[in-house]
């Protein structure tokens, strides 16, 4: 913000950090320091625009409660952390009742985005947007002349879109890790070779921030020349946004299978001690090495990664569509794709294709039925199936690749075995079923001859 000519007042509850900041990173800038919340509020022009970047949960509520006594009608509180969207719904409503305006904005881009242009996903009280629009769109990352920032929607819509962004990020990271695992364990490639593979991939359809940094990571060496990544404990952390995405998917009945598997893969990775013990007791295939042409299999992995990545984004947009329907939000999916084109962690080349798909058809049911993506999936399908089947035979876990393919096959199937599930439910619990020859009519069969005609009411939890 300072770099683009906006005057900023900085405050941290540990005031010594403000002093250190002004004497170091902010030295020579127009950034003004504050010694207390009241001091910060008094130094701001009206309507005051206060952006919080603190840990999600109670810390946000505590800061808001501490700020309210110093604020006046029309002042704006902006939560730029990774808050749960329902919390943002509540805060927006509560502050509106007090005459204050609230924006919950997703912010993505890490350290680089913070300094040189993030992706911003603001939502909340739309009356606040004119006061911050120029600031946000000026500092946001740009793709051509387009700012990776636009108004998302009411209440917690901004934080919801950021949550889905992070869920897709979980999926992307897991897919890349599975590609790495296959090249390392099945093909026996060196880290330098894998770094070059990812660098090559970054010049085509897979061009993205995460592919780019993976190439850099794999080429990094420890002090003794060993690949640094192999010195890192294989137990992944998480801060909750991926889990929130999976929970939301369950609540709204959206099959977000790939992102769910990405979350569970992190949970499994955290069982390091158990896995070490199990590795000495449970045998897998005799060999985990691929015996075919390595160059061809690397290309198969690339195509499997691309196809699975498309599924991940398709599932994420499915969740946004269903949630918007449930909460009566009007989300512009093409605009959201543009917000993710630059600055953010999941920025990638084919987000432009996603924007085009929704520009052509704002009511598109699924990215997989768009002509471009339909064609891309067809091209990748053979390689994708080879990778998943080979991984299974070699005992290399690929939960994200496999779940993406299973979703794809399920989504393209006119008939699934759920008719048997319905029969089973009716057999043991008289839950009823719908007949194909009588749509909308639910009936119960006395399967055993002992159950009678009494049945449960039909409903979906």
TrEMBL record:
Presence of keyword NADP: yes
Recorded metabolic or biological pathway in which this protein acts: Carbohydrate degradation; pentose phosphate pathway; D-ribulose 5-phosphate from D-glucose 6-phosphate (oxidative stage): step 3/3
Listed Pfam families: 6PGD, NAD_binding_2
Protein name in the entry: 6-phosphogluconate dehydrogenase, decarboxylating
Reactions that this protein is recorded to catalyse: 6-phospho-D-gluconate + NADP(+) = D-ribulose 5-phosphate + CO2 + NADPH
Role noted for this protein: Catalyzes the oxidative decarboxylation of 6-phosphogluconate to ribulose 5-phosphate and CO(2), with concomitant reduction of NADP to NADPH.
Keywords annotated in UniProt: Gluconate utilization, NADP, Oxidoreductase, Pentose shunt
Binding site for substrate: 82, 108-110, 165-166, 170, 239, 266, 425, 431
Originating organism: Candidula unifasciata
GO BP field: D-gluconate metabolic process; pentose-phosphate shunt
Protein family membership: Belongs to the 6-phosphogluconate dehydrogenase family.
Active site residues of this protein: 162 (proton acceptor), 169 (proton donor)
Class of this enzyme: oxidoreductase
